[in-house]
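User: My instructor asked us to take a sequence, write out its structure as tokens, and then describe one feature of it. I'm not sure where to start. Here is the sequence I was given:
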Amino acid sequence: MTVAALVVDWGGVLTQPLKSSTESWARADGVDPAHFAEALKGWRSLAEAEAGRGEDAGPVAALERGEIAVADFEVLLADELGRLGSPVTAQGLLGRMLAGLEAPEPAMFDVVRTVHGAGVATALLSNSWGNTYPREGWDDLFDAVVISGEVGMRKPEERIYRHAASLLDRPTEACVMVDDLPWNVDAARAAGMRAILHTDPAATAAELELLLGVTLT
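Assistant: Let's start with the prediction itself. The structure tokens for your sequence are:
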């Protein structure tokens, strides 16, 4: 099927890399990055053990679906980091952690703008950690916006990919997803989408050019 729609992630695709943001936060807050990774890994294991309906049940999944308040998640994360040996102030924790995502990736914005201007349907599909999004100008970039905490679904759940495609009035098979996390890319493919693992704007633009037939490089 011809690819007729572009779906893009926010953090790490349209912004600077997520890893850079979290590493900067860890240095500023005195958090050992290994402790942060261990906390998230442990919660993922918990989620897998508790999943009883095909969905993760851990704290991160709950946050991304909007099922837990940001302040409550911050307390949980601060407690876990403290237990691991990296005490940190809970209040405002996520705001400090995600501050780096305020820096856009201009080259990827140009890609989306060019694709949208060529008449290809475009959507943003993002997992939110309670962060705010700079939405000014989005009407000129996206035909649909799907934020996990606003729709009660999250990547890598198959239903959120199908939801994004439905908002564009396209089957998933006519969409290409760009994401910087391998498991989200795998899930998009499982839902029927083409998918690109984003590593840098030039490589992504080259792949999209071939799929969409729009000059980007």
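For the description part of your assignment, you could build on this observation: The domain at 19-99 is CATH 1.10.150 (DNA polymerase; domain 1). Try explaining in your own words what that tells you about the chain.
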